[in-house]
Amino acid sequence: MSKLLLLEQDPQANQAMRLTLQRAGHQVRAGRTVADGIRLLEAAPHQMTILNAALPWSESREFLRLLAEKGLPVLFLTAEKDNVNHLRAMYPTCCEVLVTPADSGALLEAVASLESLSASTLTFGALRMDTVSRRVTMSGRRLTLTAQEYELLHALMACPREAVTRERLLREAWGYQAMGITRTVDVHIQRLRRKLGAAWIETVYRTGYRLSPAMG
User: 187-201 burial, b if ≥16 CB within 10 A, otherwise e?
Assistant: First the structure.
C-alpha cells in the first residue's frame, strides 16, 4: 500500500476519500489547499499525490513543479471530462485522471492503476520512459530510438545522479562481457545526444556518462 497525499478543497469529499483510502490500507495525509500540500510535501515523504484540478492553477503550477522534480505520480480529480487529455499532457511525470463524481471503487482502481504505471515508468526532467512498452517521450513528444539507444538511455535513467561507466553501458546495451571495445558506446552516445539534445548527457572524465543534473 502507498503513502498518499490528498488535496481536495471540499471538506465532505476530502473526508470521504480519505476514509476510503485508509480502509483500503493506504496511509493518507490530507489537506484542502495548495499551501497545505506544499507544507505536507516538505514535512514527510509520500509516494503519490491525489489533487483536485479545480484548485487555483496559479498556486498548483508551482506545487506540480515540486512534485515533478521528485518524480512523484499524480492522480488528478476533475469534474470536466474535456480536461482529461489536457491534464495528462500538462504533467511531465507519471499521472492519471479520475473524472468525478466517482464511487469508492473507481477511486481505488485509479490509485492501483497509477501505482502499476509508476512502477514501470522512469522519469528525469521532461524525459519519460515506459519500461513495459519501451516508449520514450520528451515533454510528451515520442522519441524514436534504436534498441541500443534505448538501452543506453535506460541505464542512464536508472541511476540519473551517477556517472555510468562505459563498460557498464556496453553490458547494458549489447550484453558484452569482454571489455576494451568501449568506443562503440561513445559513437552511440553521440547519436543519442542528437536525438535528446547535446545538453542532456554529460561526459564524466575517465569514467563514462551521466544525465545532466541541470536537465532534471
Answer: ebbeebeeebeeebb
